[in-house]
Design a protein that fits this description.
Layout lengths: L4 H4 L3 H22 L1 H9 L21 H6 L13 E6 L9 E5 H17 L7 E4 L7 H13 L2 E4 L5 H10 L4 E4 L1 H13 L11 E5 L5 H11 L2 E8 L4 E6 L7 E3 L4 E6 L13 E7 L10 E7 L1 E2 L11 E2 L4 E2 L4 E3 L2 E3 L1 H10 L3 E12 L2 E10 L8 H19 L4 E5 L14 E3 L5
Parallel strand pairs: 3-4, 3-5, 5-6, 6-7, 18-21, 19-20
Antiparallel strand pairs: 1-2, 7-8, 8-9, 9-14, 10-11, 11-12, 12-15, 13-14, 16-17, 18-19
The structure holds adenosine-5'-diphosphate and zinc ion.
Zinc ion (ZN) binds next to loops.
Length: about 425
């Protein structure tokens, strides 16, 4: 099902035209209503009427998380405070929170794009949908909430935590959809098993998972463990929250709501635009938001874009799975490592649970790199030789994917800390030194 066929299936030419008009309007607005933007544009020698086509977007200055902090809390608002009806802040995965202000119209847009996501997952007005993203300043809970309300589903606003109750209500209320982080979904999958209630007594069939990077391997795990179809839900506070992009029934890339959020891919080191299909840093310009529009915001998320029409009929651009954030990338003994690469290896090995932790340190000027993995109950053994063999196999697979060989530490079942929100999978002790 498609929520807004006009926008989601528009011809590429029409989309371009619409994006240009909306971008021009946004540039005018920020130039005249927001001093920091005007100053930056003047420094770059660019005025609103220099933006004649979408290609001219490269003339505009970038914005970054840093700018949001510098103008903390309200310096980048483009409307008077009287127009702002909601404030949210990022969960601060990477430092101090950044604040975003929404007008009534911005909240409507959030509902609209969220509705596209949940409709694409096959959910609708007859479904109970459990929202187990955290509610509060973090956009996950309230973002999924407005999406479910907009499609007319029955929203169950659980927030995260209180896991036993989550399972009880999921069962008793017959929740069909579950929206949460993939790592919390894993946690809930275990809790569901522990509850002893037979799977057939649950109506759950669809997951809307996001707010953190996850791999195809993790999707497989979640789909098998929970007996559902697991879809990607992408978003970030600065742009609006969850709802910036979503998968469709083909699970073949994350469609972006590009009539609201115009994406570019740039070289993370130089900021130069990259050709279509290349992997680089995702950059968004919001082209309909009033409260705090952002032009060319550097997400630090690494991905690539595909402009081909999808089998679902949507023409909207699709991004590939987020490899990670530029700043999630570890450099260990000179080699670039993303946690998602480790995850993909772990999910391939049947003896392992999809729980893991990377620990990096520096001893005598040399990087140490440990990967802790959890062995499944059924495979955990006191037999030393069996465990050693498994360890060797994991090391070997990691070496061939990463190009360096970590120390593998096998942990007992359920010993690695579970996450109820965004998982923290990296401990880099070098930063503390
Ligand atoms: P914070 O920056 O504090 O984590 P947000 O909650 O706004 O604040 O997080 C947004 C970020 O979360 C994105 O930039 C991206 O790195 C990550 N993210 C969100 N959804 C997904 C997803 N579906 N896949 C991968 N990463 C995601
Ligand atoms: Zn599609």
């Amino acid at each position: 099902m498609i929520w807004n066929e006009t926008m989601e299936c528009m011809s590429r030419d029409d989309m371009h035209r619409l994006q240009r008009i909306r971008l021009q309007r946004t540039v005018e607005r920020v130039y005249h209503n927001c001093e920091p933007y005007r100053k930056r544009m003047q420094e770059k020698g660019v005025a609103p009427n220099d933006i004649r086509s979408m290609d001219d977007i490269v003339k505009l200055p970038f914005t970054s998380k840093r700018d949001l902090r510098d103008y903390y809390p309200f310096g980048l608002l483009c409307t008077p405070m009287s127009e702002i009806v909601r404030l949210q802040a990022s969960s601060g995965t990477t430092g101090k929170p950044v604040v975003v202000g929404y007008t009534r119209n911005d909240l409507n847009i959030w509902g609209e794009v969220g509705a596209r996501c949940f409709t694409a997952y096959g959910l609708g007005r007859n479904d109970v949908i459990q929202v187990s993203y955290g509610y509060g300043l973090f956009t996950g809970g309230l973002g999924a909430h407005v999406a479910v309300e907009t499609i007319g589903g029955a929203v169950l606003p659980m927030s995260s935590g209180n896991t036993e109750k989550q399972i009880m209500l999921m069962h008793d209320f017959g929740a069909v959809g579950l929206a949460c982080t993939p790592s919390y979904a894993l946690y809930l999958a275990d809790a569901l098993l522990d509850s002893g209630i037979p799977r057939e007594e649950f109506k759950l069939k669809t997951g809307a998972f996001g707010a953190e990077p996850w791999t195809e391997g993790m999707r497989k795990e979640l789909q098998e463990k929970l007996g559902i179809k697991a879809y990607d839900l992408y978003g970030l506070t600065e742009i609006i929250g969850p709802g910036v992009g979503h998968e469709c029934e083909y699970q073949d890339g994350t469609h972006l709501c590009e009539d609201h959020f115009y994406p570019e891919i740039v070289d993370p080191a130089t900021g130069e635009p990259l050709p279509p299909g290349a992997t680089g840093e995702l950059v968004f310009s919001t082209i309909t938001k009033d409260g705090m529009p952002l032009l060319r915001f550097r997400t630090r998320d690494l991905t690539s874009l595909n402009y081909e029409t999808c089998r679902c009929g949507r023409t909207s651009v699709r991004m590939s799975r987020i490899l990670g954030r530029c700043d999630d990338m570890l450099i260990v003994r000179g080699v670039n490592v993303f946690p998602s690469q480790v995850e993909s290896v772990i999910c391939e090995i049947p003896q392992l649970e999809p729980h893991y932790l990377l620990i990096v340190d520096r001893v005598n000027n040399l990087d140490t790199f440990e990967v802790q993995v959890e062995v499944k109950d059924a495979f955990f053994s006191d037999e030393m030789s069996k465990m050693l063999e498994l360890k060797k196999h994991i090391s070997h697979r990691l070496q061939s994917v990463l190009g360096i060989s970590p120390d593998v530490k096998l942990s007992e079942p359920r010993s690695i800390e579970r996450s109820q929100g965004k998982a923290r999978r990296v401990i880099d002790k070098r930063i503390l030194k």
